[in-house]
Design brief:
The chain has about 230 residues and is an all-alpha fold. It has a domain at about 60-165: Cytochrome Bc1 Complex, Chain D, domain 2 (Orthogonal Bundle). It has helices at about 1-30, 60-65, 70-75, 115, 125-135, 135-140, 150-165, 180-190, 225-230. The protein binds heme C (HEC).
Amino acid sequence: MDDRFNTIAGWVLGGGIVLLGASLITGEYFKAERPETMGYPIAGVVEEGAGEEEAEPPIAAFLQTADAAAGEAVFRKCTACHTINQGGANNIGPNLWGTMGAPLGHVAGYNYSDALRSKGGTWTWEAMSDWLRSPRTFAPGTKMTFAGLSDPQDRANLLAYLNAQGSNLPLPAPPAAETPAEAAAEQADMPGQGDMAEPQPELDPATTPRTPGTVGGPGAPDVSGREGQEKGQ
Ligand code: HEC
């Protein structure tokens, strides 16, 4: 009796030690470290941060309610480098009187960077919004060392203020609002929304490449979930 008890106790104790060791080792191997950024990057999709742009409603939407007086307050961020009065001096940056609607780099006697000079075009509402959102993204290599204004309403207010200083461009039309019927049609087109009976794409085993050595590779039993398990019962 005693002998048997000792044997059993030995196995139990030994098993416990082995389990403990195994969990320590697997713990070392499969240490889960929290990645710096969560989620998977998707090719072709612009990532947030680092001066990159995130999709945003058109600036015209924000301009409808823009307030030039509020924009004047935002412009305080610019006065370290810019004057905006008519005939004002160029500073670190050029004088900004009448800039809206003017060609990029229009101030004679100001030495623009090649980045801005070679960009071409005029300061439309969209161009100015993009520029002020992130000068670096709009004209890589620009010498305007200003991080940008991420808040679209701040930018719209500022644009309204800039426009009132010698430009007076007409406001852009508000972006067309979607009619409820259009929104519904879009909804119906979205896969996985509503109609769950829609056929799902199927993989053809004949054409789907298999990686040898992985579970489910060649030679793996042809068992598929519950159905296969229930066959034997
Ligand atoms: C640190 C200094 C600095 C600050 C702050 C700054 N800018 Fe500039 N800005 C510049 C420089 C330098 C240029 C010339 C850029 C170039 O040639 O690449 C410039 C160019 C511009 C231009 C192009 C003008 C043209 O003639 O085509 C506009 C518009 C402009 N800035 C608006 C602003 C506004 C609005 C702000 C505030 C939100 C601002 N800047 C803040 C330095 C600055």
